[in-house]
Design goal:
single chain, mainly beta, Thrombin, subunit H, 6-stranded antiparallel beta barrel, two-stranded antiparallel sheet, 7% helix, globular, disordered N terminus
């Protein structure tokens, strides 16, 4: 159990977190989740609403393997026409299609054909909002401007 300890340092509030999570725990967790993370390449062929035409890269992750659903940020699932592909860690590429773009919150979903992934063995990353808490140590896996999976 992690417990944040607060102390005043040089006029700023610092948080020191005692962690029982080891490097090996992180390696195991990353080896399980990285295959479910996709680099999303999107091309908006024309300007629409508040978005401009152009191409970009983003990150998404599989949240429902059986139905083929990838969660990403709202701006990635454009409000207008978009052509998108997902590339997985083994370089397998599949087309993805906009499913939902939340009008208020920063999330959106793409859908894909689960049968289109032929070679990669992966599991979904289930959504579990109740497990989130302040002070919990996390690692963020994703792509930064097209780089492959920095942590």
């Amino acid at each position: 159990m992690e417990s944040p300890v607060k102390e005043e340092v040089g006029g700023e509030l610092a948080m020191e977190i005692e962690s029982s999570v080891t490097a090996e725990d992180w390696r195991r967790a990353l080896s399980r989740v990285v295959p479910a993370v996709a680099v999303l390449r999107t091309t908006a062929p024309r300007a629409f609403d508040t978005e401009v035409a152009g191409a970009s890269y983003a990150t998404g992750f599989v949240v429902d393997k059986a139905r083929g659903i990838i969660l990403t940020n709202r701006h990635v699932v454009k409000p207008g026409p978009v052509v998108s592909e997902a590339m997985f860690v083994n370089r397998e590429e599949i087309p993805v299609y906009p499913l939902y773009r939340d009008p208020v919150h920063d999330f959106g979903f793409f859908r894909y054909d689960p049968g289109a992934i032929k070679f990669l063995k992966y599991e979904e990353i289930p959504l579990d909002p109740e497990a989130a808490s302040v002070g919990l140590e996390i690692r963020v896996v994703g792509n930064d401007s097209g780089e492959k999976y920095p942590v």
